[in-house]
Amino acid sequence: MVKSYLLRKVKFMWLEESLSKTEYRTDSDVPEVEFDTIQASNHDNEGKNTMFNQAFEQLHENAHNIFRSRDERLWRVKYLDMDSIDQGGPYRDSITAMCSDICSSHLPLFVLCPNGQNNTGQNRDCWIPNVFPPNKPISNKFKKQYQFIGQLMGMAIRKKHYFNVKFPILLWKKLIGEEITMKDIEEIDIQSFAIIKEMKINLEQSQSIDGDSEINYLCTSIMSELRFDVISSSGQTYELIPGGENIPVTPRNFSEYCERYREYRLNEFGRPIEYIRQGLCSIIPYGCLTLFTANELEEAVCGKGEIDVALLKRNTVYLGDYNENSPHIQQFWTIINEMFDESQKKLFLIFVWGRSTLPILDKDFKSKFKIQTISHDDNHQIDQMLPRAHTCFFTLDLPEYSTTDIMYERLNYAITNCSSIDGDVAIDNVSNPTHSNDDPLFVGQLPTSLATLIGGNSLFN
After folding, report:
1. Which domains does the chain have, with CATH numbers?
2. How many Å apart are CA 266 and CA 61, to the nearest integer?
3. Contact 196, 215 (CB under 8 A)
4. What is the mean pLDDT of each run of 10 residues along the chain (461 residues)?
5. pTM here?
């Protein structure tokens, strides 16, 4: 295909020009979105309380205009149960929270792929659109929610607020109009065509050796268990033809069964993905998207799959007593680059910035990452402190730890346990739950709603 031979740089240049021409200019105020995080923690089967649904209810009617705005931040966040001022951190955190809801069981829109459910094959962490009965309409709310997800993808492309979701390649292919293949299905469900392939091999062997009785018996035995129905990727059973649950598969109708089965599996996600595409195209000109490959579209929406530490380092500035040659800064980059695995790197970004991906290019950094020293009167207590993050300003307050191992332990504890934006209570010394009560850890602030749960946190400003 021609799109595979077009230079990436040229494609992205055309995309940027098109986005600029279709930017929505408005003098109206940026909308405020209220989130109740306490309510969001109370899950229900329909996802009504989720952060995603709270945003959907307040934004979806005008998202086609809001998400094309030239403003850097498209909404202001107000957390009803927290004392936080949105200078960027809560906004980014709300996007991260919505992504977490989308790829979870909290919403009925996506399900973990069969390979993930069965812990086998590739792409076990991929989420696929939920499967709906073939001959029944999808509810209007689900349709609008899928469209809203597409609009959020468009926002991610426009603003480079990348979407931390894990979808299989088949979804990205369908969004740009490419046909998906049996291989694409097997990458999310390794067993999807196993029986059909085995039956075809057995039937061919039977014919090649003049109707071997054992193979014929094997084929007949397997077919006796099959009907003209299919178990979908989300686990429901649907008929391939009217009354199919009562129609056995035989050597005579096996070819028809294979064709109907294949057609169903290749198209079972068609409607949800089409709604996502409609939403995406309300924010991004579709003509631009068709120039991209599926992998390029995924990167445009989600950013690079791995954290580019060198890119982050190039876009870091040092404040206070630190400079790029400071021993503690050298320790810090050793930890990030060599000691943290990919999941820890993502948690670190969420901790300091409220997002789990980096911009793709240096020029896309709207602000530099800042590392500054923490002041403390008692030098003997520095090793007991945790780092402090200011997500609104992409800033890390890093104590001057005595060893690399201690710095690793404190950073890892902070990124694992401290992920809430609040300012209800300020505390100077809080004990780590894994330590004794008189072991002060850090200078930070703790959400009152979480204090009894985690025993300590730092402030995301």
Report:
1. 2-188+269-302 (3.90.1750.10), 194-232+234-265 (no CATH), 309-454 (3.30.2410.10)
2. 32
3. no
4. 66 88 79 90 86 96 92 87 64 89 94 91 90 92 98 94 91 95 94 83 64 61 84 93 92 90 95 97 90 92 86 95 95 95 88 79 86 73 89 89 94 81 36 32 30 30 37
5. 0.73
